[in-house]
Write a structure and sequence with these properties.
The protein is an alpha/beta fold and about 325 residues long. It contains 14 helices and ten strands. The protein starts with a strand and ends in an 8-residue tail after the last helix.
Amino acid sequence: MKQVAFVFPGQGSQQVGMGDLFLAESQQARSLFEKADQILGFPISTMMSEGPEELLTETKYAQPALLLVSTMILEQLTAVGVTPTVVAGHSLGEYSALVAANVLTFEEAIQLVHQRGKLMESADPEGQGGMAAVLGLDQQVIEEQLSSMTETVELANINCPGQIVISGTKTAIDAAVTLLKDAGAKRVIPLNVSGPFHSSLMQPVANDYEELLTPIHFNDANIPIYSNVTAEKVTDAEVIKSLLVKQLYSPVRFHEIINHLVAEQLDAIVEVGNGKVLSGLVKKVSRRAKVFSVQDPASFQDFINWYKGEGNNDK
């Protein structure tokens, strides 16, 4: 049996039409989408297939939509006998990992991320916060440059060598763009997001989120999950719950998670969800790692053929 990790993408990977090709072929997929509409009380499936993109990009809709697509593909993998040895998710993707590890049911998780999205939007009601991707600059240099800023701007996503996302007030982000370019960054790209995620500006909603989590029953994980906050494996339900609160305002340490996954010498790392963002990050950390993205039926079948030893698929 091959040893594989499942990694789940987060916000920013949403796209109108995602999942449509699976829906055209699978009654199981259609049933899950119908269930999501019923649970949420609004037609998330229609929003995903028809848009508009601006609506799907809103945090309170993007988060359940992405979890829905990842869970749908996860179910397809489970149905053909593929189970992971370890799981991880990028930011919002950590909740898909919780479903994969049976910490939360799909029903619990999709309601939770919808509420989480609304809380995250409420942390910045006037739209004063933002994020930007910094390309081609070392983490230490970025931290040194940001330490001179008077307004809040912090590391948010430490993705891979030469790709780090910063988060803070928009005025601080604007100032940091010039500062980081002068320090040698190849590019600093403002991101189209609705808040200063994974920064201390999210702390005002942390208590509300903790209260939201309190009545929800978490199971111990049946397979290890790499935490965004610690970049270490975790299985204990209460520890997972406390880390999810910290995740709101802490940097996503995905580069370290990738390093750990590569060190485990798994047979493959599989991106389960829409897009190929995480697959690209893994390849930037280790060109030797075998990586699959299973975002549509064709790529899904490529992976299954490799997993079952049919053909010679080197990705």
